[in-house]
Amino acid sequence: MVSTSGTTGTPKGAVHTVDSLRASADATARVLGGPGGWLLALPPHHIAGMQVMLRSLAAGSMPVVIDLRGGFDPGDLPEAIDRIAGPRRYTSLVPAQLRRALDHPDAVAALRGLDAILVGGSATSPELLGRAVDAGLSIVRTYGMSETAGGCVYDGVALPGTRMRIDDPDESGVGRVALGGATLALGYRSVPDHPAFAEPGWFRTDDLGVIVDGVLRVVGRADEAVSSGGLTVVPQVVEAVIDELDAVAECAVFGVPDETLGERVAAALVVRAGAPEPAPETVRTHVAERLGRHAAPRSIVIVPDLPLRGPGKVDRRALRRRFS
Fold first, then answer.
1. Are strands 262-271 and 248-258 parallel, antiparallel or unpaired?
2. Which residue from 35, 263, 273, 302 puts its CA 20 to 30 A from 256's CA?
3. What is the pLDDT of residue 311?
4. Could you tell me which of 140, 142, 79, 133 has the C-alpha nearest to residue 115?
5. Exposed, middle or buried, 308 (CB in 10 Å: 0-12/13-18/19+)?
6. CATH 3.40.50.12780 placement within the chain
7. What digits encode the pLDDT tens for the residues 216-248?
8. Can you give the pTM of this predicted structure?
């Protein structure tokens, strides 16, 4: 039983079998080019960290472990990566860890020696991905969750044995993502009749996405969409535009109650070290030009860091409570 991160509320226990976990480890090895040594830089009680251990065991090795009790320190990466054995070497990170590592020259140099760096747990912004690729890192964007034994879609393409589809698509093809296949959990131990597992062999996610030519693009979460003045705003779409601003290191978009609009779009920004704070009107204008005025955040706050829930997931509920 693997606990979910609780992004949408109370964590639930996804029930897996030996076969589903093994199918995930085997499919990952096939796609990455073969088994290898792994660096464990994630909490092992989350599915991403657990899979690093299982992939290592499947390869007949033990992972090199970074001590996270004092938090993630990119300065630990060079020595740890140097200890990874095997013809191929891998690790798995969340975007927040990758962002911190890119600001550490020695960590970047060490990460260049890895055959693949899986990045998942939350969306990787185009800005962060561009920085990593420009630094010469072999990034693989992963999509999945506890219910699918971790990442089951790599760079938008389903792993061997994984099925994906879009349910109830709109005119643009965007709808709810459904996943199935060999890595799927049996269901939830704590909620055996949960509707997400109602269709045998499939898991209906809370994510919105579109599939074009067999490649999945996730655009946001159905339960995080902001309904403002009768129009729907997907936070992740707005965040990708705000991330284009040089002064912004990280951002999170969320909805707060509004007597007139029902909800108004709000944004919390983390300013890049040494950069001046962006003027709120600059942020609003940039978003309005790209997405329309309805998507531009009416409330903008500067924060030292973003609250997290689970492995690298932004806690939008905490932001909503704090700034409502």
1. antiparallel
2. 273
3. 67
4. 140
5. middle
6. 1-221
7. 999 887 778 888 887 888 898 899 999 999 999
8. 0.78
Q: What is the DSSP letter of 87?
A: S
Q: Which CATH class is domain 1-221?
A: alpha beta
Give CA–CA dist 74/305, Å, rounded: 17
How far are the Cα atoms of 53, 129, 141, 279 from residue 25, in angstroms, in the given order? 10, 24, 16, 47
**Does domain 225-323 sit in CATH 3.30.300.30?**
yes
Q: What are phi and psi for residue 263, nearest 5 degrees?
A: -140, 150
Which residues sit opposite 215 in a β-bridge? Answer: 212
Distances (CA, A) of 107 to 12, 43, 131, 193: 35, 20, 14, 46
Q: Please give the pLDDT value at position 7.
A: 52
Domain with CATH 3.30.300.30 in the chain: 225-323
Q: Tokens 């459904």 map to which residue?
A: 178
Extract the residue ranges of the chain whose pLDDT is less than 50: none
Using alpha carbons only, give the angle 98, 70, 304 rounded to the nearest 5 degrees.
60
